[in-house]
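user: Please review this fold.
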Amino acid sequence: MEGEFVPGFDGDEDTFEVVELEILFTHAEMSAKKIDMLLEIWAASLLESGGQPLFMNHADLYGVIDSTRVGNVRWENFTIQYTGEERNNDPAPWMSDVYDVWFRDPREVIHNILANSGFTDELDYVPYREYDASNDQRHWQDFMSGDWAWEQADRILGDDPTTAGATLVPVILGSDKTTVSVATGQTDYYPLYLSIGNVRNTVRRAHRNAVVLIGFLAMPKTTREHASTPAFRRFKRQLFHSSLTRILHSLCRPMKVPETVLFGDNYYRRVIYALAAYIANYEEQVLLSCIVRNWCPKCLAHRDNLDENALRRSREHCDTVIEEFELHKLWETYGIVGDIVPFTNDFPRADIHQMLSPDILHQLIKGGFKDHLVDWVERYLVHIHGKSEAEKILDDIDRRIAAVAPFTGLRRFPQGRHFKQWTGDDSKGLMKVYIAAIEGHVPKDVVRTFRAFLEFCYLVRRNVITEQTLAEIDDALSWFHRFREVFRNAGVIETFSLPRQHAMKHYPYLIRQFGAPNGLCSSITESKHVKAVKRPYRRTNRFKALGQMILINQRLDKLTAARADFQERGMLNGTCLSKAFEVLGTYIHFGDDYEEDAGDTLDDPMAINAHVSLTRKYQRARAKNVGALAAELGVPEIPTILCQFLHSQLHPTDTRNPEDIPLYECPFFDGKIRVYNSACSTFFAPSDLSGTHGMRREYIRSCPMWRNEGPRYDCVFVVTDPQADGMRGLDVARILCFFSFKYQGTFISKSAIDCTALYRQ
């Protein structure tokens, strides 16, 4: 591979071709007609100089992508048809239909993930257990830090000593139906995704092709007359499991005998696969685990009393009771659909009940919060106050929600919470402000119920979970179970046997098994729907769209793989313009800048804990010196504060309180200043909002006029006691302005918030 070019790209224009292909096909998502129009304009502009564009037309552009072999995994298909007995002379339409399933070889897909040089430093090659040296507490973070990987490696080695030294590759699957078109007739697709447990959670969540589309499952449909028949329901379930068995068939042998695979660091390693986890919402979990609706797929608790202590489900237990009991007994007593064979029965060491992962999005955010607690509050108000008075209270709650001031990380709801379709982001945004909105309208125990529930949610969403965190999770869950009784005592609900809410009980165990739950959440597959299904569908002509979507996905994967290959060779360093200047022997530096938006994630490594930089443009119409700034802001103490600040910078060993230092000992400054309306803060704060390395960028604004609507002075947290825990070491401050100046030839900019931000508590 060393020194070779990616097939499909050659000559001195490789870099420009890759960049242009990405812009036209991936980012702009141009249609073939628009690509031709742009290339014609480009060709016309080059006629005078005798040049020509990199591509003649869209067919030429597509041909270059299609000829690229790197990242290519061929799509295949197979068909399935009902072969059972027809019970009458008028068979149902679905019995004669043929169902197409499209897929890519998952083994080759895994090879591509392991060979991706961009993941080299983001892979865990062995299971591990991590402990804090200061207190000997265990930490759970990425998948390989969990007990499942450790125990699976021991089991494999115990069964076959010849596997010693092989790298365990846990296979993570995910599936969920998604709708791409409603207005023009509902069009649904059933994508299947694959990832591996070696990839760290932050990478899996960061849309960096660590989660790959490997198939489109069939969705049988029939007439209303036959849709609810037992035969059709059974056929749909078995079709699903049979399709998964066929798609994953190539992994069966290397689950027993290790194979040699090339990794992104150019080393070959022996690997052995294992089905590890399955990302799915509750409806999908019911289908996967072959259980009856309203039962738990993880334990044997009866559906009428889900919160009772019960044994965990297992493949061995299910096989045993299926052999012993009739179908009716299995259905009523164990909640098992006994006439369906789970796909995991065809693979070694696979247990679907063990594979099902926690789902923060549907179990907690959409389930426990939106569908349960928020709905219970409305029903409580109607039950206690009557419909008319309850609507007035709900209107006041909406007004409170709408009145929330704009702030980074807070989602605004100008119309309150009264909208028809909630997204996951809507629910997460409302979780941050809902307690304050209902305070005073509901009993204290209702507020305490929300507090305990939200405490549980925010604890399980952490990137790193410790033994102390697990104890806090158990404590929050017990308080939630205690306080939620207020709804049953008020007659709002009759039972708490709700599968999604009951799932909270399994989180501590699943965290120990799989690591932090945010690495296996269905929000990962739902966000993948946009890139792999919905956007490709919009680029089709809607006629036999699936074939076009498959081709689009294949081309996108090739471009992504080509970019990774070119980056590894150092061919995509800098920009196209910098590359051109380099060819011409000219050097030019482009200063850093940023666009003022609501904040964004960074995939850069953690080089700093926090850094604040001013915008490049200062405000020429604002104050030019310290005295004028004090008058503009109405803060006459600014000159004194600045003198005290300069003294602290010149005499860092002086332990006196700056306010106690006489002014005659402080340096005097009366030079020019530059005032800025905003600054950019980059900091390390690992969470769902941050990038792959825990870095995030936020924008702080302090300007007299924001978007012609009035002044905006953002609030910040100021560290006043670095030794204190959490919020106890922070004060809330409002930024009145940012400014910079030169003192004794040194340019003092926004390197520390105390330096250039004047704050008032």
Summary: The radius of gyration is 30 Å. The first strand starts at residue 75 and ends at 81.
